[in-house]
Amino acid sequence: MICITGTPGVGKTTLAGILRERGLEVISLGELIRQKGFVLGRDPIRGYLEADIEAACSHLQEMEGLDVVEGHLSHLCRSCSMVIVLRLHPEVLRGRLEGRGYPEGKVLENLEAEALDVCTVEAFEIHGERVHEVDTTGRSPHEVADIITDIMNGSRVCPPGGVDFSGWLLG
User: Where do the record's region annotations for NMP lie?
Assistant: First the structure.
């Protein structure tokens, strides 16, 4: 099971649709959590659903024929054979999140997470060398899907650390 993760707005769901069109069995971790009720509660300050990641990941392991799991928490599943972290320049990400109508506080929280490599760091702490990092900035969804396909086939390697948006925080 390959897990595709990244900050909200980097293109995970769009990419998942393309991979599905290419014949892969893809599931959204967020949809699974909501549909199966893998919810522990709600964050009292931010209002986010708190997911029962262990239960969701355990359920995923039982699913047959599953190729790809996408979602911004998917890298927390220890059973991922490979993790691909999608990255996007924070200024481009800002436009996408604002376009979705995210409140300013949520936009800033996600921009900071992207600039600080939060998903990449978390993924690497759990999965080590099985993590790949792809900068989607300036690339079409199909170009990103081609890169992901190459990574999945072993013909391309995109180790973590090659994408750095930390300078955005200082600018």
Answer: 28-51
Tens of each residue's pLDDT in the chain, 171 residues: 999 999 999 999 999 999 999 999 999 999 999 999 998 888 777 777 788 999 999 999 888 888 999 999 999 999 999 999 999 999 999 999 999 999 999 999 999 999 999 999 999 999 999 999 999 999 999 999 999 999 999 999 999 999 999 998 887
Number of domains in the chain: 1
The secondary structure of the chain in percent helix, strand, coil, rounded to multiples of 5, reads 50, 15, 35
CATH number at residue 86: 3.40.50.300
In a domain, 150, yes or no: yes
Is 59 contained in some domain? no
The pTM of the whole model exceeds 0.90: yes
CB 8 within 8 A of CB 70: no
Q: Which residues are annotated as a binding site?
A: 9, 11-14, 100
DSSP state of 37: T
